[in-house]
Write a structure and sequence with these properties.
The chain is mostly helical and 165 residues long. The chain contains 5 helices and no strands.
């Protein structure tokens, strides 16, 4: 008989690590998307203008602000993760995905006159239906909010002071 104890799977630690990896991936993804938009800011401005949600005079300013905000929030989320504040990273990323979901909801309710790309910085493929994008971004916002609330509600037990990443 083996005297060593049987190793047990620590699901709490595994869940914390998994969520941190997802947060890290989301922050890096947003930073990459912001970088892609910044590299061709004129095209992103044209896309936002083509969406038609904003007046043509405000779309270029809004596009520049969106790129700056997306990059800044991605960096803040990465800093929050580096300082072991996953709940803060959840709040930062969740807020941005909520803004994206609301923008997509506007496009669901008042779609562009002709199909146009989403402007995410990944693809210029015209979007036939904005509903899946609204659901995806809204789901990400809700998921991040739930994860962040779990960390806050759990206090130190849910914090990563006991679990190293």
């Amino acid at each position: 008989m083996d005297p060593r104890p049987t190793p047990r799977l620590n699901l709490a630690a595994l869940t914390v690590r998994t969520v941190k990896v997802i947060l890290l991936a989301a922050a890096i993804m947003l930073l990459a998307f912001a970088t892609n938009k910044a590299e061709d800011l004129a095209e992103f401005r044209a896309t936002i203008t083509a969406h038609g949600l904003l007046p043509a005079s405000a779309a270029p300013v809004a596009a520049t602000a969106a790129v700056s905000l997306e990059a800044g929030l991605a960096i803040l989320a990465l800093v929050a993760l580096a300082y072991r504040r996953p709940a803060l990273a959840c709040a930062i990323l969740g807020a941005w995905f909520a803004v994206l979901a609301l923008y997509c909801l506007g496009l669901v309710l008042d779609p562009p006159a002709k199909p146009v790309g989403c402007g995410c910085g990944l693809s210029n493929t015209p979007v036939a239906s904005w509903l899946p994008l609204f659901i995806r971004n809204g789901g990400a916002a809700i998921g991040l909010a739930c994860a962040g609330c779990e960390w806050v509600r759990g206090g130190e037990a849910a914090d990563d002071r006991e679990v190293t990443f």
